Amino acid sequence: MKSIRVRAPASSANLGAGFDCFGLALEDPYDIVEVSIEAKTKSEVEISVDGYRVPLDPRENTGGYVALKMMEDFEIKEAIRIRIVKGIPPRSGLGSSAATAAAVAYAIDKLYSLDLPRDELIRYASLGEIVSAGVPHLDNVAPAICGGFTIVTGNPPKIYSFQPSDKLGVAIVLPNSISKASTYEARKILPPTIDLTSAYRNVGYGSLTALGLVLGRIDLLKDGMRDECVERIRALHGFTKLYDEVRTLADKLGIGVALSGAGPAYIVITYLEDLKTIADSFKKIFEEKGIDCKLYTTKVGRGVHEVK
After folding, report:
1. Which of 129, 130, 116, 95 is nearest to 9 (CA)?
2. Taking a C-beta distance cutoff of 8 angstroms, is the pair 198, 153 a contact?
3. Residues 32-90: tens digit of each pLDDT
């Protein structure tokens, strides 16, 4: 039986103004996914899961869905077994669905020596997001494949990847007492159009965010990790908690913060030497309101890769 074991990172999409464009891979948390080929008369996909629970039906699992599509396109006739050790909490705003999809796309490409170009691999991984979001979007699967900071733009989409400054650390603050909605639900509430003022302000915010990440400038991230189109709407609909308090604290501390993807997690970016102290400050404002939260202190991570 031929198999491969890979590690796929959590990721944070949007980073404020970069809705459906910006993504950042995280070193922690992550999924471990093992994909195996079995020679059988019946072509099928079987899934097993440890850790956080996700669907076992391949048509409802982002990795299983990717496997089915690749098996169809490349006329794969064997049985494929997928074992997921799910370390990324689902429906948290941390790209849990994208990590599984990216892991399976990467694994099948390696197992069958398909040698797919990077952007084609990302496209296959994005198909898994149809299961969770209703549409194949790339803002989490791109950093899950590439690592670092990614920008998706254009039609058809092109992916640009950059390595952020190694001076930066990342904290993820994940409130635990919130009923977590799906990405599909988080997208359904958004307006179909935005006003011109919000559009040009978001262009400025996004530009500062990209520069701040690459240059390691916290002052740019403080002013750039903002949004006038999506975040507040999601906060008002209950996709996260304490939005105004989090923003006020970020301004006071002079650091960048944004809703991570659709929430409820927040992403905080500051200098590595200040990371623990600042992360604890954000955790404290939740605990003072009686809201338990999980804290990850991490940094920008690699894309999906093989592990032993």
Report:
1. 95
2. no
3. 999 999 877 678 999 999 999 999 999 999 999 999 999 999 999 899 999 999 999 99
Active-site residue, 185 included:
no
**152 within 8 A of 272, measured Cβ to Cβ:** no
pTM of structure = 0.94
Of the residues 183, 240, 270, 298, only one is catalytic, namely 183
Residue of 129, 150, 209, 231 with catalytic role: 129
Q: What is the DSSP letter of 49?
A: E
Q: What is the rounded distance in angstroms from the CA atom of residue 208 to the CA atom of residue 204?
A: 6
34 is catalytic: no
Site of tokens 């009686």: 290
Helix (H, G, I), strand (E, B) or coil at 160: strand
In the DSSP assignment, the letter for residue 148 is S
Domain ranges, residue 60: 2-162+302-306
CATH number at residue 115: 3.30.230.10
